[in-house]
Amino acid sequence: MPVSQVLAEVYAFLKSMLRYREIAFWNIGFPIIFLLVLIAVFGGEPGVLEIDVAVVDYDRGPFSSVIIQALNSTGALKLQLSDLGLEELRKAIANGSLSAAVFIGEGFSENITQGSQGRVLLLYYSNPQSGDYIASIIESVIGEASRGIAARIAGDARAEILLEPISVEGVPVSPEILATKGGVRTFYVIGMIGVQILFSGLYTGAGIIVERKRDGTLKLLLSSPMRGYTIFAADTVTSMVALLISATAIVVVGRLAGADYSLIEWRDALAMSGLFAVGLLGSLGLGLVIAPLARSPEAVNMLVNSIAFPLMFLGGIIIPAFILPEWAQDIPKALPLYWCLEGVRRIVLYNYGIGEALGVALPGIIASLALYIAGAIVYRRLLEKSVEIV
Amino acid sequence: MSECSVVVEDLWKEYPGGIVAVRGVSFEAGRGFTSLMGPNGSGKTTTLSMVAGALKPSRGRIVVCGLDVWGREGVRARRLIGFAPQDMPFKEKLSGMENLVWIGMIRGLGYVDAKRQARRALELVGLEAHGNRRVVTYSGGMRRRLTIAACVMHEPEVLLLDEPGSGLDPRAREEVWGLIESLGRGRIIVYSTHISQEAERHSDRVLIFHSGGIVAGGPPRMLIERYAPMPRIIVYHDPGGAPPMVDGLPGYSRGDGVTYYEVEEASSALPKIIEAFLRAGIQVHKVEVKRPGLEEVYFRVTGARLEA
Prior knowledge:
CATH class of the largest domain in chain B: Alpha Beta
Shape of chain A: elongated
Number of domains of chain B: 2
CATH superfamily of the largest domain in chain B: P-loop containing nucleotide triphosphate hydrolases
Helix content of chain A: 55-70%
Oligomer: heterodimer
Number of strands of chain A: 5
Order of helices and strands of chain B: EEEHEEHEHHHEHEHEEHEEEHEH
CATH topology of the largest domain in chain B: Rossmann fold
Strand content of chain A: 5-15%
CATH architecture of the largest domain in chain B: 3-Layer(aba) Sandwich
Largest sheet of chain B: 6 strands, mixed
Number of helices of chain A: 14
Strand content of chain B: 25-35%
Radius of gyration of chain A: 27 Å
Largest sheet of chain A: 5 strands, mixed
Structural class of chain A: alpha/beta
């Protein structure tokens, strides 16, 4: 495939960006404005919505039950029994999935019965605004339970050492970046790149033939010494270049607006670029798959907007999936782009390793590539049809 | 240059709904100018689009310099073709130079080559001073010259031009045709037109299209000799009343106050015609003597007028 033919569209796009204000606006101006609005509205210090507390009870004895009941009785804590290990609990707290965790080890009740102190680990978010407050609530509840246990076994010969039968060891867990202002803003930077991927992919894919039919370039391309798939490759490369320009503008403006990229290393940046690129392939593929439904550029606009706008909000792209209403929680999971963006967010916001992040994004990567291939098949059919009636 | 030609064999184009735009067109065009002449909707543009490789025929074969345009050698065949649709899809806000570079790259030239060829093509069409201006500021004639420049960017053997002179004022049309004549030397030029004078002046061979098929073909002089050798006297008169017979010759009336007579010799027939009208009491406003041309040929062959 002659590279120059693929690059012809890139050349025209770059030149058009300088000359057509609307192209520059949709690729640079719009994402910047949208990003700044998001940061202005939602980019402040994140508040604690709920106090999610996991309890890991390896003891399963009478005194661990007392603690669980006590925690459950407050009504302020959303308790969940868990069997996660310490490291997993730490991660869940660090990435904001949990506010705190109470870890009761094996032999806890036995120790108390035998006159020793029972030890409880309290892992909590060390965020100064919310973490210490949550830890103090839990500590006070466990302290109350401890005194109850002491009273229950009062009169025992060993009563003097049971005045404090439970010791709580606090383990602060450093918040990951999402819990900071810079982190929230970074979330929106990634989200805005996701919005660009969603819209430009769908528009390019859905309009690949009809737009060219309308402006007459399809006739020009078909009469040129070009193989059918060259147009497809040219549009893919042009979309990548457009995304690169948009993403650069978004990243730069995001940084100026306070986004925090401190956790990103160059290898991470490469992995993230790859995930964005795969996400774009998925969006392009999706656009192509729906292309047969649109027979004019106006129909493409209508179709793409009716899909992309709801997905922008409900697809976990600019609004975190975990704050969506319960009925919408599964919608993002059906969108390959969400998984790709999740992979990026794990790297940037939660300090995941590349391997782990790619593991999270794997369903999205596979689905995106599958969509792109499906899109290529649809494209071929559309082109065959177009060559019959230009 | 090796011998090269465009061979079209039994070309058909049917659209869904049973509409047949081209029916069984066959011709061979060698070096020089071949015009496809006919009114709008007669199948010329459809035929050109199929020869250019932009529209797939329903049936038939198109071979350009030995390469089947719609066969396996399609890409190679298209390299030999420069196609100028009636409205070249230029990017209006890009300059003429940038548009040519873009089209050159589409046609397989590398960026550096495309830029060099664009410069050369702009010179060829006399637009070198306007190459950096946005196309949106170009006049109709300049756009058409730019279209021709876009066609010759990759130095093709065959130029396919769809209505190259239409929509231009007479002066711009002359300029464009001067350009096509000079660039077309040694090449195969196939163009469509609905302007009979254009076909007559700028064709080595004319193919007359009517209702999707070719109804006559040959050098313009030959077609005129064969189908409309006699001059025509056109009388513009008051409408109404049957046009009078002159020396046994019936007048052909369009029914709107225009009647014409085909005569062997205009100078002797003219006084007789005017006299006949005066005797019939029909007021004559204007009389024209027209030497026969392709418009008359078209009328003779199809029974219909070649309208713009």
